[in-house]
Description:
By secondary structure, the protein is α/β, with parallel strands linked by helices. It has helices at residues 14-25, 32-36, 48-57, 72-78, 89-106, 127-147, 162-171, and strands at 3-8, 29-30, 37-39, 43-44, 61-63, 81-85, 155-159.
Amino acid sequence: MQRVLVVGVTGAGKSTLARALGSRLSLPYHEMDALYFRGPGWAVNENLTADVSRVAAGPRWVVDSLGSPDVRDLLWERADTVVWLDYPRRVVMPRVLRRSLRRTVTREVLFGGNRETWTGWLSREHPAWWSWSQHAARHRDIGRRLGDPRFAPVTAFRFGHPDAAALWLASL
Length: 172
């Protein structure tokens, strides 16, 4: 495990697991949202492809995302390991709701200096709405990628519950 993607739906715990995995394996950790969002108003990084290309070209890394469509293949073609947090909605939704509520109440500064807001909860782009609406599609997309011959050399670990992922991490 030298180039690891931690994938799953929004709110599954990708960043938390990727950060812990990076620490345990001494791999540089890269947070996709921090690469993607670069300014106020949730501005998208104009240099995203170049930035992700630099990360993917590196010999060792862990990234916490399936990757946005424009950089997805860059990551998948270089990854040697995929850790899939394939949790059901009943597990993910309470997590994403608690996280967003905490971020909104505390006005936590996020990527590019942005914050989650009360009005943001009404947007289809809000993490809770996004996680709910993208759950089935994300599951299908990751499953297809893991069955794609282009990515056959990738070692995959698929976890259906956070306890299983925690046990695996502890075993490393």
